[in-house]
Input
Amino acid sequence: MKHNIAILLSGNGSNLKAIIDKGIKVSFVASNNPKALGLEIAKTANIPIYFWNNLTELEKEVLKLITEYDVKLLVLAGYMRLLSKNFVNSLPSKFIVNVHPSLLPKYKGMNAIKQAIDDSAKYTGVTIHYVDEGMDSGSIIKQKSIKINKLDTIESLKIRLQEIEHLIYSNTIKSILHKY
Ligand code: GRF
Output
């Protein structure tokens, strides 16, 4: 696949790993967290890594890198900060995608899995969506639901949801890139 994506992450990088394993070309990985395990995954895969603690600086530099690497799609994979309006509006619409562990518009923001359990929801799931100026509010590209069992905990649900994320996020990214 000839089209480049770039990844923003803050944590473990299991979605990054799934994307790399799918053979999608990642031009660089950037993070607000220098200790993010995802940066190690990128390094092992010989993908250039960048990090900035300061979010204004991060956004400014990432915009430059997007042009430099000719990135076609910016993929949020566990990036735990809200992107500024200025950053989002500096890029074409439908340029940024995110994966979220709930059936949006339900349970936006942090702790989405806990929110579903606390709400005694019967179902939850994974949403892949475009990113706009709001929090988890951009248009939905794909959703997959799962049943919450009585014995489910945050941890057990997270494992099942991440299995789905790893499968459908990379497939969705691939099909978006095929349209270019
Ligand atoms: C994922 O569960 C995703 O839904 C959320 O952040 C988590 C990132 O996990 N946005 P990982 O860093 O890819 O393992």
